Amino acid sequence: MKVHLVAVPFKSAKWFIVNVDRFAARHKITRSQVIKQAISEMLSNNIDVTNIDDRETLRGDKVLCTVKMRDEMLQKLDDYAMQHRLTRSETIRRAVLYYLSKHEKEDPPIRIRVEYLRI
């Protein structure tokens, strides 16, 4: 059985994608898996992300990311975005923001020790 995947582009700030990558590395999954999990959790639990402020995710250097997803998931995402009068990029960013804020609380903070040596 062949699965038809569609590449879905969205804009975001570079620092936001770096945070998603750090989260993905901690959980030993890929960035795409984090984004897909965030979207599927938002859609399956019918979470309202319209009140989440995503303006910060556009400050700074911007990057264009793509995530491959199934046609069915893309259609549900587009329906959700139209129903809530959001763009697809806004919906993806807000879903990921919600997902990270929810799951970051479960993770203990990572401490990094940096030592400077004088030569």
UniProtKB/TrEMBL annotation:
One of its GO terms (biological process) is regulation of DNA-templated transcription. CDD domains: RHH_NikR_HicB-like. This is CopG family transcriptional regulator. It comes from Candidatus Aramenus sulfurataquae.
